[in-house]
Amino acid sequence: MIRTVVAQLWRGLNLTVRFGLELVALTALGYGGWHVPGPLWVRLLAAVAFPAAGIAIWAQWVAPHARRPIPDPQRLVPEWVVFGGATVALLATGRIWQGVLLAVLAAGNRLALHLLGTTTEGKSEGDRETRHPA
């Protein structure tokens, strides 16, 4: 009983951290876009387009209510496109330790969720259901 409660608390904590990391990744993509060389309109466009692309990828394949959800481990590909892109954006703008920290925290969080037997949807890995788009 106590183990179940503790496991649920850890799952909840890790899913909350996961959500925070997703927001940080989108922010980093916007930050990277703003620092693209060029005139103001190019920087503004990139600052909006980069996180919009991340949101589109996440909504399509990764989010709990994704349009076309894909199962683990294939889900790692779009996840790392977003987190990897955010890390590259931070590194390219000279934010080295922030980029490294984001990559390490995202990977550690994903590993923790796996070890807890939890998908990024918050479900137990044994309770997966196959969903097909309508």
Verbal overview:
The protein is elongated and about 60 Å long. With 134 residues, it is an all-alpha fold. It has helices spanning 2-34, 40-62, 76-92, 96-115. Helices cover 69% and strands 0% of the residues. The chain contains four helices and no strands. The longest helix is centred in the N-terminal third of the chain and has 33 residues, at 2-34. It starts with a helix and ends in a 19-residue tail after the last helix.
Please report which band the strand proportion falls in: under 5%, 5-15%, 15-25%, 25-35%, 35-45% or over 45%: under 5%
Q: Based on Cα principal axes, name the global outline.
A: elongated
Largest sheet: none
Percentage of residues in helical conformation = 55-70%
Class inferred from helices and paired strands: mainly alpha
Instruction: Report the average pLDDT across residues.
Output: 90
Counted by DSSP, the helix tally is 4
Low-confidence stretches: 130-134
Counting copies of identical and different chains, the oligomeric state is: single chain
The span between the termini is: 39 Å
Radius of gyration: 16 Å
Strands, count: 0
Quick take:
Helices cover 69% and strands 0% of the residues. The chain is mainly α. Helix 1 (2-34) packs antiparallel against helix 2 (40-62), helix 1 (2-34) packs across helix 3 (76-92) and helix 3 packs antiparallel against helix 4 (96-115).
Layout of secondary structure:
Elements: H1 2-34, H2 40-62, H3 76-92, H4 96-115
Helix pairs in contact: 1-2, 1-3, 1-4, 2-3, 3-4
